[in-house]
Amino acid sequence: xxxxxxxxxxxxxxxxxxxxxxxxxxxxxxxxxxxxxxxxxxxxxxxxxxxxxxxxxxxxxxxxxxxxxxxxxxxxxxxxxxxxxxxxxxxxxxxxxxxxxxxxxxxxxxxxxxxxxxxxxxxxxxxxxxxxxxxxx
Length: 137
Hints:
The chain is α+β, with helices and mostly antiparallel strands. The chain has 2 helices and 6 strands. It is 15% helix and 41% strand.
């Protein structure tokens, strides 16, 4: 069986194994992504998280959780926006709870504990992280 490494797959692998989270991956001025291709890469990886873009001011990825799964993510150092592509669940952040479904848009401030729970339909979420804040010296 032959394996074909596409430039997008190479970019995703590079992002997944980058040593320095502040290191910017070289990207062109414009890049179009195809959701079906990203879904295929995610399925091949067997992982629930597929990062696909990282620049100095933004990083993005797709996060999936199956029905009944436990969301084990920890608070992040960056502000984050979720856009629910598919699925239905509940979401909790900073003590607030919400029912979410396809089309829901969620904002979570940096370092706030949050999670998806009571996942009724497989979730597929597009995630946008802001740049990490510089620590004061």
